[in-house]
Amino acid sequence: MFQHIWGTQHTPCSDVKKYSNTTLNNLLIIIDMATSEIFLLTVLLFSSGNAIGPKLRLTVYYESECPDSETFILKQLQPTVQQLQNNITLQLVPFGKARSINYGNDGFECQHGSSECLGNMVQDCALSRMKQYTDVMKVAYVACEMETRSGAKGDLLCVQNAKLSPKDVEDCVLTGEGTMLQLHSEYQTSKVRPSFIPTITVNGVFDQHIQDNAQVDLFSTLCSILKEAEPCAKHYNSMALNNLLINQR
Q1: In degrees rounded to 5, what are phi and psi of residue 204?
Q2: Of 23, 162, 179, 181, which is least surrounded by CB within 10 A?
Q3: Using CB atoms within 10 A of its CB, is residue 145 exposed (0-12), middle (13-18) or buried (19+)?
Q4: pLDDT tens digits for 17-53?
C-alpha cells in the first residue's frame, strides 16, 4: 500500500537491562499494626470526598515495533488509562530512537527496521485525527497497532477499527503531512533524550524513579501522585484492609 524511502537499523529498544520485579519493592506501602486503623480511616475519608482535582499530564514515548513498548502499552498503559481516565490527560509520541534523514526528505532510520518507521508514521497520522476521541479510545487504537503490527505492515485494519478513514490516514502517510508529524515527534522526543523505550514523563518532567516504577506498576506509580483520586483511594483502601486482615490472623 505504501511506497516510501526508509532507512534501516537494528538495535535493542534500550541501552540498559530490562526492569525486574525487584523494583516493586519501591512501591510497597508498609503499614504498622498499631496505625493501620488510622490509615484505613484516612483513606476512606479521601474516597468519600470523590475528589478529582487537576488532571495529571502523562506523555508516553514509544516505538511501533519495540517489544518493550508493546508490553508496556498492553499490560500497563491500557488498564491504567481505563481506571484513571478522569484523572489524567494522555499524549502518545510514536518515535523513540528513530532519526530523520536530511530533515525527513530521505525518510527516517528506525531501531527495528523500515517497517517500524512506517508503523510510527501511520500511528502519528491516525492519532492526529483522534483529537476529539477519549484517551481510552486512543489507547485502544494504539494497543491494536502494537498487538497486530498492522500499520507497520501497511495494513490499516486498526485505523478502520478506530472508525477513522483509511484513505485519509493513507494520504497523510504518502504526503508531507506524515513526515511533518514525525519531525514534530522527533523534536518532542529529543527534549527528553530517552535512554530506554518506552519512556514516560509526568507533567512534562522526566523522573527516573517514576520511570522505573511505571514499567512494573504504572497504576500504583500514578496513584502515588494522585492520592485523592477516587480509583486510587479505593486502591489504598483495599491495601489497608488486606493488611488489617493479615495482621489479625
Answers
A1: 80, 5
A2: 23
A3: buried
A4: 444 444 434 433 333 433 333 333 343 434 444 445 6
Nearest partner of 74 among 215, 237, 187, 228, judged by Cα: 215
Cell of 107: 525518510
Q: Closest Cα to residue 62, out of 157, 131, 142, 137? A: 142
Question: What confidence tens digit (pLDDT) does each residue in 150-170 have?
Answer: 999 999 999 999 999 999 999
Q: Rounded distance, CA 117 to CA 110, Å?
A: 6
Indicate if the pLDDT at residue 55 is higher than 70: yes
CB atoms within 10 A of CB 50: 10
